[in-house]
Amino acid sequence: MCAELVNQAPVELDFDPDALRRKYDQERDKRLRDDGNEQYLEVKGQFSHYIEDPYVENAAKRAPLSDEVDVVIIGGGFGGLLAGVRLRQLGIKSIRMIEKAGEFGGTWYWNRYPGAACDIESYVYLPLLEETGYMPPKKYVEGEDILAYSQKIAHQWNLYEDVCFQTEVQELRWNEDSCRWLVRTNQGDEMKARFVISSNGPLNRPKLPGIEGIDSYKGHTFHTSRWDYGYTGGDAKGNLTGLKNKRVGIIGTGATAVQCVPHLGEGAKELFVFQRTPSSIDERNDRSTPADWVESLEPNWHQDRMDNFNTLVSGGIADKDLVNDGWTEIIRNLLVMVQSEGGAELSFEQLMEKMELADFQKMEQIRSRVDKIVKDGDTAEYLKPYYRQFCKRPCFHDDYLPTFNRENVTLVDTGGKGIERISEKGVVANGVEYELDCIIFSTGFEVGTEYSRRCGYETYGKDGLSLSEHWQDGARTLHGLHSHGFPNSFMMGILQTAFTANYPHTLNEQAKNIAYVINRCLGGNHQVVEASKEAEAQWVETIVSMARMNEKFLADCTPGYYNNEGKVSDRSQQNVPYGAGPNAFFKLLEEWREKDAFDGLNVS
Ligand code: NDP
């Protein structure tokens, strides 16, 4: 199940790094545009039908609540669930969870498109595996299994007792006199809480391309995160029989499209895939969970495996690669290169050079894979990604590329420009109008827009100051969890905190910290806990100074949400994760808790 990271044979390089550098620059330049995040439409007003919940039959009906609890948790995805679990484990009973969906599950509740699955290994992605005793049946699990697992967590820790589904927070307001948060919702609630935790999900608000004519289309249309099975037929496993007489267009070729395109190709009479930038598609190689491996696991195996994965994908060194898949392969290449030079001590610059070569090597393999699979030469060429692997979310799929060998499937590459407009009848790209019965937007989610807009509510702290005002020049936090002027409030996410492809791991570490702080406050009868101005300023400085080390890498990348759509700025560099990597951040939090001194927090 794991790979040794020593004594592997050196690999011969058979590419010209300078030529590749030039090619990467050319491809990035084709995709650069002035409008950055402004190119997308906020899904509201006449577009709000794109975010209606297709999975609930009836609108929730209940009397508004005006009671008080110790902790309100906003969000019922893994973040909210983990916060609930960690609080419960410390004996905190008075919790209220608020979730706009009709169930727990977060991203896995919304994203039920055909083929939805996780391509981070299930044995590291699913949280609390040792606590729940659950063992995933496969290395990579499907979305519906993850949704069911989320609900299992909620049952095990009795979180169903304390949840308001189909409820959207509209405003959080701090009351200085009572030291309570007032939580207003679209159900007319005015709840009070001593503490609030916001775990809204970094990819929770679907976005649409702001292109001419988007409101003029007369055919059927929806966003992948609100899949319309009533129209397509079938379910998350595919079998989209409703499309057998339909000409379907899908806009976007990111990680979501990669998973649903094979099913669309199979179900639709004709499928047109509109591409702006190709994704990198590595093999998936799913397999069942071996019984003897499960038998062999020692206590704490889950934490060890998550830590090992993080170490490797964030550029660290480990003896073994326990996960041993496409995510960690790049680092295996790097180690082989370093060893082939006798393992000599390398400077930071030399290491970065080796890293770039290892990346080129990996991407050459990804590009040659396209040639091996896709029969039409032009189509294969268009499907080749020319950028560094972690400029965009890498994808792992065995059926995406072969779909382009089907007679009924056409790739419409737009040379980095995107589609031109939408007409009454379909999509216009490269000057050609494609008449379509249905347009599916696989155009992703807001990431670089303002935090409160993505939450869907404003937070008003001390003296009525809004979080948007406090963050007008970029996020300001301590550890990404607290913000000065917003007492007793906690954020879970990716701003100024750890980032790892294994996002639930980050959420789990954040949840432990938040639960620790709340428990200490409740136990010690501290009414108010708040990041000090100085500690916040120092943390912002730490984040920004580390971000500088990554600035060139991001600026060289093809645009996307990883690099603020190609517009790397002082503000965007303040809204980044902690630059020393996830494991360093988790250690920092652990030591902070062990010190038991609330460093950087003021309590009263
Ligand atoms: P993305 O933001 O990754 O992709 C959006 C796509 O829409 C891109 O291909 C983009 O092109 C394209 N696009 C946007 N505007 C236009 C336009 N005007 N014309 C043509 N194309 C356009 O969204 P996804 O939903 O695919 O994925 C979001 C994230 O969700 C992933 O990055 C990943 O983190 C997560 N995810 C995780 C999975 C997992 O296995 N764990 C599975 C699926 C998603 P361009 O690239 O040029 O911007």
Q: Characteristics of this structure?
A:
FAD/NAD(P)-binding domain; alpha/beta; five-stranded parallel beta sheet; 3 domains; eight-stranded mixed beta sheet; single chain; 604 residues
Number of strands: 24
**CATH topology (level 3) name of the largest domain:** FAD/NAD(P)-binding domain
Q: Main β-sheet: number of strands, strand sense, barrel status?
A: 8 strands, mixed
Rounded radius of gyration (Å): 24 Å
Bound molecule types: NADPH dihydro-nicotinamide-adenine-dinucleotide phosphate
Provide the domain count: 3
- What's the tally of helices? 20
Helix content: 25-40%
Which range does the strand content fall in? 15-25%
Poorly predicted sequence stretches spanning 5 or more consecutive residues: none
Coarse structural class: alpha/beta
Shape: globular
Q: What distance separates the N and C termini?
A: 51 Å
